[in-house]
Design goal:
349 residues; 14 helices; Formate dehydrogenase/DMSO reductase fold; mainly alpha
């Protein structure tokens, strides 16, 4: 394996870690969005806020990491992707800004109506971001991003059946993982009602993910037969692993068991990401630009690998500590502001 190949593996690792953390807001923004009105969704949203409040931006470390590595190591591919797919990538970035600002605003808004509106914006942003990031992956998978600045069609490169279905798959997988994580969270807190609430939703999201995934493979067959044969050929073993892990997780959830469901859900999602990586190798832009042809200088590749190892021994332990402290409830959250206000001065009654 060359240094450039190793850097490409590092990129796939970064994408995997981002997927394992639910893509955006640990995927919980989806359930916040469809949680119903203020009173109906009060308890689920309270659990979501408590579960992700201390770590809700930490998962974007991996997105930033992947962007920096891509433009540093594979500049030609990065330029091609950013100039052809600037529409979905801009919309994904807009979703990140919307969800980040609205989640923070909801935490600090004085009035219940303001918090409710901010919650809607938060949910919309959490849908937009995974969809358009998934559509970007779908465009790459279908070979619709040729090498060159703005060389691909700015609309059909990502607005096609394969890309749209991969975008929907990203939303479904993020929602599935979030619901699985929240099932375990509710179980740890002794919230039986919320345990069943998110358990049912995890099963539903998992089933939807299976159906959308099958549809995406069918669309890929019609869109790019060569890549379809790679996915169902060299990627078949990983597809089987993903399918088995997902089925086992769904069975455990149906039996109200929380043992290893987080690991099972993560394995299913991770195996799908690895299927994409294995199927596309050795291309950065199928079937136009290979890893070796698009790689930067050899010294750049080596230094990226060195700093990746540095990150493993510095940033990763810090993030793990953050997650552990959040799980133990040892990072305090500010209580929500009271809802009873009167008059333009906003004085509490």
């Amino acid at each position: 394996m060359s240094a450039a190949d190793a850097v490409a593996v590092v990129l796939v690792v970064g994408v995997t870690l981002y997927a394992w953390t639910g893509i955006a807001d640990f995927g919980a923004g989806f359930w916040d969005f469809v949680g119903g009105g203020r009173r109906r969704g009060e308890r689920p949203r309270a659990l979501i806020d408590s579960a992700i409040g201390t770590v809700w931006e930490a998962n974007h470390v991996w997105l930033i990491f992947c962007i920096v590595v891509c433009w540093t190591a594979f500049g030609r591919a990065f330029a091609s992707i950013m100039t052809t797919l600037y529409i979905p990538l801009t919309l994904a970035a807009l979703g990140i800004v919307l969800r980040g600002s609205s989640f923070a605003f909801r935490k600090n808004a004085a009035r219940a109506r303001q918090r409710h509106i901010a919650g809607w914006v938060f949910g919309i942003g959490s849908l937009v971001t995974p969809f358009f990031l998934g559509a970007t992956v779908g465009a790459l998978l279908a070979g619709r991003v040729p090498e060159g600045v703005a060389a691909g069609n700015r609309v059909t490169s990502w607005w096609n059946p394969t890309s749209v279905l991969v975008g929907l798959l990203a939303v479904a997988l993020g929602a599935f993982l979030a619901a699985v994580y929240l099932v375990v969270e509710a179980n740890h807190r002794g919230e039986r009602g919320l345990h069943d609430y998110f358990r049912i939703r995890a099963i539903a999201a998992g089933v939807v993910a299976v159906l959308v995934g099958i549809a995406a493979v069918v669309a890929l067959r019609a869109d790019d037969r060569r890549m379809y044969e790679r996915v169902t050929g060299r990627g078949l073993a990983l597809l089987i692993v993903a399918s088995v892990a997902l089925v086992v997780t769904l069975v455990l959830l149906a039996r109200r068991s929380t043992k290893v469901v987080r690991a099972g859900g993560a394995l299913a999602v991770g195996a799908l990401v690895w299927t994409w990586g294995v199927s596309q190798f050795p291309y950065l832009l199928p079937f136009d630009l290979t890893i070796d042809d698009g790689a930067g200088a050899a010294v750049t590749m080596r230094w990226i690998l060195v700093w990746f190892l540095v990150a493993l021994v510095t940033a990763v332990p810090a993030l793990i500590l953050l997650y552990v402290l959040g799980q133990r409830g040892e990072i305090a959250e500010e209580p929500a502001p009271p809802e009873a206000y009167t008059g333009p001065t906003g004085l509490v009654q």
